[in-house]
Amino acid sequence: MRRVILVLVVILGLGLVPRPALAEPPKAFTEQLKKGRALEANGKHVEAAAALEAALRAVPDDPAALAELGWVQYKQRDLKKAEASTRAALAALLKGSAPDEDNAPFVTPSRIARGEVLYNLGRILEDGSDKPGAIKAYHDAHVAYPRGIVRDQLARLDAAAAAELEPYRPEKMQGPFASIDAFCKSAEKASTGDCECGHALKSEAKRTLAAPFEQVAVFPRRHCGDGSDQELDLAVKVAAGWYVTDTAPSETNSSPDHCGEAEWRFKGATMARSTLRLEYTTKANCNHKANDWGWDERATIAIGVGPSGTPSATPPIISTWDSLPERSHTIKVKLTWSDGAVEVAGKFAHKPDAQNLAGKHPLVFP
Description:
alpha+beta
């Protein structure tokens, strides 16, 4: 298994992770850090450790040098020292993080670095036969910086814990309801304002259904339930009644605060053996003050019925997201379906958490 510290090296080397308050690192530090990295890359671990220790004498508690040193010590099989250096690197990264950084809606550079170092800590603890510690380290690494490689390593130790971190893990839908109208009435009772619900979108393609699914519907819901300006609900009917799941506004780029409502279109429903796939799209452009942007998005939600007998749905799987010229990136993703799994591949935007989406994802319906 290759180490993941290489990404950390690039990030820290670019100065994206907070360092101690220095206008510029001393020359002795940068030279020794560079020397240590080169020596380690050539397998000269003793010399690399000496260079990295020299770098730390110039800038004590530097997270880059500490993380590199911890990995070199790991390669030397000095697990006790490797753990101490790696934990020190984590402490230095946390000290330089923003107070509410973990609640940010995107993965920040220092969170990436923390995820990399936590992954290395997991490797160290796993080799040291500390299975509970390794499980926690891998879990925390994935929370900080979600990636398939971390999830795979965790699955070797705790398959259930790894399954909980799957980005497309199916969750039970709300229900049963006697009808969509009955669901809307329950949403209206919890409404924070005027509630508009239940006007199903027309399908642009033929609906192909099979047992246990009898009917499907896709409908927008505005100002209902949790107070969101706009949501999109997907509903399926089975023998027990209607079950409903909602997609978050951010998943469909509705931008109701600045640009009004996005227009949703229900593209249709198809079966992949026992799994129902509902596909919808949204396309719009927006002009607000000096900002111009737009989106053309296609998304799929997979729904299945597991041992519980209750339909469960994945989060939206964005299969394409083509930007307008004003935007700086484009995502084009190919989905390959099989019974019980979906494989995601293609071109992603240049964003850190894209690695979490690539690869094969099991669709285990509870």
